[in-house]
Amino acid sequence: MVKVDPNGRIILPQEIRDHLGLTPGTEVEIHKEDGKAVIEPADNPEEIIERMEELVEETSSEHGERSPLEDSTDPIAQKHRDAVRRGANNDG
């Protein structure tokens, strides 16, 4: 059992932190869902970009196409990367 301190803080048990990959400095999102507090790691924009690039590469190679990410000047790929980065900078 965990207690809330006078400042509203709690310490998550190590097992939960390990399971969620929470390390010191990890940002989390907390919201209410069905009457419960839900804690989730915040999205890392660089991880989102990496995953997006992996998916584009996989899809392109499955269809025998050249990936737009192979050409760093591809305007659509660059537009998506920039949008993700802008969104991350506006949140932080």
Tell me about this structure:
It holds the Pfam family MazE_antitoxin. Residues 55-69 have a biased composition (Basic and acidic residues). This is AbrB/MazE/SpoVT family DNA-binding domain-containing protein. Residues 55-92 are annotated as: Disordered. This protein has 92 residues and is of the alpha+beta class. It is 46% helix and 13% strand. The chain has a two-stranded antiparallel sheet. The protein is elongated and about 55 Å long. The two termini are 32 Å apart.
Strand runs, count: 2
Instruction: Name the helicity range.
Output: 40-55%
SSE order: HEEHH
Estimate the strand proportion: 5-15%
The gross shape turns out to be elongated
Question: Termini separation (Å)?
Answer: 32 Å
- Number of discrete domains: 2
The largest sheet is:
2 strands, antiparallel
Q: What is the arithmetic mean of pLDDT?
A: 79
Please count the helical segments.
Answer: 3
Strand order within the widest sheet?
1-2
Q: What is Rg? A: 19 Å
Instruction: Give the low-confidence spans.
Output: none
SS-derived structural category:
alpha+beta
Question: What does this entry show, briefly?
Answer:
By secondary structure, this protein is α+β, with helices and mostly antiparallel strands. It has helices spanning 14-20, 45-62, 75-91, and strands spanning 28-33, 36-41.
